[in-house]
Amino acid sequence: xxxxxxxxxxxxxxxxxxxxxxxxxxxxxxxxxxxxxxxxxxxxxxxxxxxxxxxxxxxxxxxxxxxxxxxxxxxxxxxxxxxxxxxxxxxxxxxxxxxxxxxxxxxxxxxxxxxxxxxxxxxxxxxxxxxxxxxxxxxxxxxxxxxxxxxxxxxxxxxxxxxxxxxxxxxxxxxxxxxxxxxxxxxxxxxxxxxxxxxxxxxxxxxxxxxxxxxxxxxxxxxxxxxxxxxxxxxxxxxxxxxxxxxxxxxxxxxxxxxxxxxxxxxxxxxxxxxxxxxxxxxxxxxxxxxxxxxxxxxxxxxxxxxxxxxxxxxxxx
Amino acid sequence: xxxxxxxxxxxxxxxxxxxxxxxxxxxxxxxxxxxxxxxxxxxxxxxxxxxxxxxxxxxxxxxxxxxxxxxxxxxxxxxxxxxxxxxxxxxxxxxxxxxxxxxxxxxxxxxxxxxxxxxxxxxxxxxxxxxxxxxxxxxxxxxxxxxxxxxxxxxxxxxxxxxxxxxxxxxxxxxxxxxxxxxxxxxxxxxxxxxxxxxxxxxxxxxxxxxxxxxxxxxxxxxxxxxxxxxxxxxxxxxxxxxxxxxxxxxxxxxxxxxxxxxxxxxxxxxxxxxxxxxxxxxxxxxxxxxxx
Lengths: 318, 293
What we know:
The structure holds 2 protein chains of 2 kinds. Chain A contains 14 helices and 4 strands. Chain A is mainly α. Chain B is an all-alpha fold. In chain B, helix 4 (82-113) packs across helix 13 (240-246), helix 9 (182-189) crosses helix 10 (194-202) and helix 11 (207-223) packs antiparallel against helix 14.
């Protein structure tokens, strides 16, 4: 540090301003440059993140459609919404899809990644193919799957027909609409396998070797070596999956527009309609904040539980 | 010496399979899953090449009887606004990638290399914003842009691109932290200012992560449909992503699945190309610079 102090002392910068010259120390100049560099981000943060959050919270306390004067209603937006039947229904739909997408998707991703970890020739080809659906995922796949799931000429029913099964009305019945979306998510689950693959490759081989020496079979090795070692990745996937899954919206809007009889109407879809269709901006803001709280609570739950099952290398046991 | 009986061909094959049990099992499973994952794409391309009368026939023919390559030409001619949409997407992607690369590098440099009061708390904010659910800022952001009369413009994208993004800041900062500080100090000794150090010394070493940022940003902006549907009402301004969804409800074109699938294929193609090109760069970047993350 001594060296730097000498540099600081020995270098001052002269900046000429209207009031004469300004001597800025090296430290000050560095800080000034730094603030200038991060200012775009910080200003955007103040306006579009912090400011927006405050604005939406404030808005949620009003009845506002921007056509008539706003009326302060306090927390009644929240109490009204919680008692609305769409609240329970949309939350149920969202949680349903979230639950199955995660609890079916994760094993699929994990199994796929273990497959991809095998040292077979041409494995890179397979890794690319597995990653394709997730890479390309988005509205193109929604449009594609919308047609694949078509009752009359969709790919899926044709495949079922090949094995002698009857066609399924995927997107047109309340029984099958949500599972269809889950199925589409499972198809893209191959993408998550790349993340698990990286984690799998980071597991030190000695652990497996010493486990085998101690007599652990394949399943035991999986349970006691593999799973704990990759648990941080599982944790990360779980948290991001929950945050993203609770806000699911585009797939349901593009594919089923809320589904037959509201069966695929997710929370965000209700919010979207409340705001942009019904112009109830205050009410919608309350819906937004409630969802935010739910996301935070669930995330907190996962964080708390993580102490029980997530294993970090080098962590001290109490 | 007892004579060795010659094993039959079948038992030889059986023994080969049993010995290479893992490979056999692995390959067959991989093959099965690959086919399952790839099948929708295969069907998409096959539908896009079919003549119109064959698209909805049942049972489905995977191989078109005639290969109508001209479907791909007709998409651009008969779908209204399609070429315009593609150009719009190109513009948005250019803005997005250029903005992201420039702004995030600057910001990450400040957090990684410069000292200033409040650096740690500010970076904490960067991190927490990364996980922030967007739901709570969607409505106000829309209202703010509306009040700024920015609907039906590309301003939201411009501002979004040039103000940095938590994930890229984090990623670039991590990478920069792995570059030795001696580089900065040597540059300082030679009289270079902070910006010069960044541009001339550090940026050339950031090729791999910057390409990663560019690729992610490309994919994000190109695929983005939500912002488009919020801010754009004028059909001429739609990006290709929104256009693809919009034409499904078009009376003349929406039901012609061969055109919709051709458009989907065209839409997906750039993503796959970019991914493959970038992959090579990643490997090249790691090998050339010798930097391991």
